Structures are given as structure tokens and as C-alpha cells.
Amino acid sequence: MSLEESKQAVVDDFSMYDEWLDKYEYLIDLGKKLEPLPESSKTGEKLIKGCQSRVWLDYEVKDGCVYFSADSDAIITKGIISLLIGVYSGRTASEIASDDFAWIEKIGLRQNLSPTRSNGLASMVQTIKQIAKTLANNG
């Protein structure tokens, strides 16, 4: 599935629900399905700064693509990072770095989060973009 198809799939998934309570349930389900990071990966350098909850983001590059893994100590936050890595994991660094992340606005996520969670979402997006830009520039 292309990046555009993957983003559209998320927009479609979110449009199935009329109420934000149902969308939060969807995020919680995503968080529950996210494979937890091993404790050895939950280090300070993998901790995303700017999140109220603790969120760790790890990655590896295989065959020219970036594969993300993540974890959080808060279930909705875990769902949000799961959503992001579900879209961007397995893409090239330049593909991620050049994306506008506009699909997040399309699903209304930022507007329906508390200010602290919204800031956390921005920090997650910024961290993913920064990793991709660094890898794209060094690759």
C-alpha cells in the first residue's frame, strides 16, 4: 500500500465513526494492539520530548526503509503513536520527510485532543519528521 493509500485508509477508518467517543475507542484499540517496546529500548534518548505521557520511539533502517516501533505509558497516547507509525513505518526516509502530515487534520485528531495531548501529537510528528530528515540527509 502506498503512503497516500495508507493515509486515506486512516481517514476512511475515522469517518466510519460519528462520535469522538467512538474514535477514542478506536485509538485505544490501536494502542492495545501495539507491540510493546522491550524495557531496554525505553531509554532517555528514545523518549519524545514535549509529551505529557511518556512516549518512546525507536526505529531501524532495513532495505532503505525506516521501521518504527514505539510504546507509551498512556493508552490513548499509545494509540496515537500507533496510528502514526502504522502510516509511516516501512517508508523511505525521504518519503516521510517530504510528507505534509495533513491527514491528521483531515481526521480532526488535533482539534479533539486536550491541549496537552495535542502538544504531544505535535511532538510525535516532529520527532518522526526529524528522524526521517536526518536519515534522508545522511543517506
Structure write-up:
- With 139 residues, the chain is mostly helical.
- It has helices at residues 3-15, 20-33, 75-88, 93-97, 103-106, 115-138; strands at residues 55-62, 65-72.
Which stretches of 5+ consecutive residues score pLDDT under 50? none
Order of helices and strands: HHEEHHHH
Strand order, main sheet: write it out: 1-2
According to DSSP, the number of beta strands is 2
Q: Tell me the radius of gyration.
A: 14 Å
Strand content: 5-15%
Helix content: 40-55%
**What is the CA–CA distance across the termini?**
23 Å
Main sheet properties: 2 strands, antiparallel
Content-based structural category: mainly alpha
Mean pLDDT value: 93
Number of helices: 6
Overall 3D form: globular
How are the SSEs placed, and which strands pair?
Layout: H1 3-15, H2 20-33, E1 55-62, E2 65-72, H3 75-88, H4 93-97, H5 103-106, H6 115-138
Antiparallel strand pairs: 1-2
Helix pairs in contact: 1-3, 2-3, 3-6
How would you summarize what this structure contains?
This protein is mostly helical. 53% of the residues lie in helices and 12% in strands. A two-stranded antiparallel ribbon has the order 1-2.
